[in-house]
Amino acid sequence: MNALATQAPPSLPSAGVIWTRTLEAIRQEGLHYALTWLERMPPLEVRENALVLGVPDRFFRDWVDDHYRAMLETHLSRLEPSLGRVAYEVVAGPPPSANLPPAPTVKVNSARPSRLNARFTFDTYVVADSNQLPAAAAQAVAHRPGHNYNPLYIYGGTGLGKTHLLQAVGNHIWEKDPTQRVVYLSSEQFTNEYVESVREHRMTDFRRKFREECDVLLIDDIQFLGKREETQKEFFYTFETLFSLNKAIVLTSDMVPAEVPGMEDRLRSRFAMGLMADIREPSYETRVAILQKKAEQEGLNLPDPVAHFIARHVQKNVRELEGALVKLSAMHSLTRQPVTEEFAAQVLRDILPAQRAVDVEAIQREVARFYKLTVEALKEDRRHKALAHARQVAMYLSRKLTKSSFPEIASRFNKDHSTVISAVRKMEGLRETDPSVHRDLSELETKLGGM
Ligand SMILES: Nc1ncnc2c1ncn2[C@@H]1O[C@H](COP(=O)(O)OP(=O)(O)OP(=O)(O)O)[C@@H](O)[C@H]1O
């Protein structure tokens, strides 16, 4: 390598030395394809905080600048913190070798990138309190890949929508610009491809696929990389290369990086470098909203009370909610029976959690706790407004959740049965018209585990 003119400040090594070290670092990462371009640029000088490199023409300069500037500048500033930039000068010299690989033509991928499911889009994703941050961050990445939140690390429990969001990023980017090379796979698939490439001596192809022919890397379930030392090493260099080229990286996992067993520290710290966002379990309201949106997509008319019924009973994750809805929809189209709470209870009995037997005493205890009263106060003859409301709630729930008759319930509250009948009617009305009453009743029903 020829240093044509080198005027580094005294504290800096010469342009030639700096360039040789930079190329060496790139070589160690296995980026041989990049080197075939970079090695044709002589180091000219160090000017201010830039290393000036010679290029044969403007086309060459633009190609290198587009593809390798970010990576070069990362390496440079790592080797010489005072040097953060590269600059170019067109110099007369031997024409680039005939062996120089042609600038790859950018292919338009008319087919959706492999493994991406067209169903997983932002349009079909319900955003709510439990997933607001990851959803907003994923949208930001999809709009400006590589510039916003890089890497984005989405974590959370099973069936909560991590894969959906990850694929929505890929689908959005590809739909907007099919020249973008989106690579989506799980960390297990990454491991398998790596192992196969090593076995079949195809590492150059492997590296080209993940480092050079990839604009957006989406890896699902990154936690499985934890126990794969060799694959982790390869992934680290893949990550470094893409990151330095400002390529977008989005990862999902069921735990935070610090908790992934066997994950190297350098990877953990890189995962935490961008934005980490968790998806939590959906709240009651979110479960209802998801059910309603999914029913709409399925063309199923889902009455509100049935959506609330399912949301009360299926609490763990969205996958189970979806399973319940699919089953309900299938049975409805087979039997043509109206979709009511009773129909849902019957169709879903094997997937709903076993019902606890609820009796009037249990309801009185739960309602008293909910309104911070004593059970005795519920049974007293006082007409204080808050007390009367709590008592009516307890009577309504007793009628709804137990098989007790009006007189039986009345006797447990030391009242007559017409008081219970009017309390039940009043609550039925309020449940329809007053959202706060509706919320309280649903919460109490969930706590009581009743139908
Ligand atoms: N907020 C949401 N809006 C709409 N659908 C959702 C939402 N969250 C999850 N889903 C749906 O729930 C199902 C499970 O989601 P997904 O496969 O993305 O979960 P996951 O978190 O990746 O789970 P795992 O860790 O088990 O792979 C999918 O069909 C997905 O479409």
From TrEMBL:
Question: In its keyword annotation, does this UniProt entry include ATP-binding?
Answer: yes
Q: Which SMART domains match?
A: AAA, Bac_DnaA_C
**Binding annotation for ATP:** G159, G161, K162, T163
Q: Where is the AAA+ ATPase domain?
A: 148-280
Which intervals of the chain form a coiled coil? Answer: none
Q: Where in the cell is it found?
A: Cytoplasm
Q: Where is this region: Domain I, interacts with DnaA modulators?
A: 1-92
- According to the entry, every stretch annotated as the Chromosomal replication initiator DnaA C-terminal domain falls at 359-427
Q: Which family does it belong to?
A: Belongs to the DnaA family.
Identify the CDD domains for this entry.
Answer: AAA (cd00009), Bac_DnaA_C (cd06571)
Q: Where is this region: Domain IV, binds dsDNA?
A: 333-451
Function, as annotated, reads: Plays an essential role in the initiation and regulation of chromosomal replication. ATP-DnaA binds to the origin of replication (oriC) to initiate formation of the DNA replication initiation complex once per cell cycle. Binds the DnaA box (a 9 base pair repeat at the origin) and separates the double-stranded (ds)DNA. Forms a right-handed helical filament on oriC DNA; dsDNA binds to the exterior of the filament while single-stranded (ss)DNA is stabiized in the filament's interior.
Mention any Pfam family matching this sequence: Bac_DnaA
Q: Does the keyword DNA-binding apply?
A: yes
Q: Subunit info?
A: Oligomerizes as a right-handed, spiral filament on DNA at oriC.
Q: Which UniProt keywords apply?
A: ATP-binding, Cytoplasm, DNA replication, DNA-binding, Lipid-binding, Nucleotide-binding
The domain section of the record reads: Domain I is involved in oligomerization and binding regulators, domain II is flexibile and of varying length in different bacteria, domain III forms the AAA+ region, while domain IV binds dsDNA.
Record-linked InterPro entries: AAA+_ATPase, Chromosome_initiator_DnaA, Chromosome_initiator_DnaA-like, Chromosome_initiator_DnaA_CS, DnaA_C, DnaA_dom, DnaA_N_dom, DnaA_N_sf
Top-level taxonomic group: Bacteria
Q: Which PANTHER family match?
A: CHROMOSOMAL REPLICATION INITIATOR PROTEIN DNAA
Q: What is this protein called?
A: Chromosomal replication initiator protein DnaA
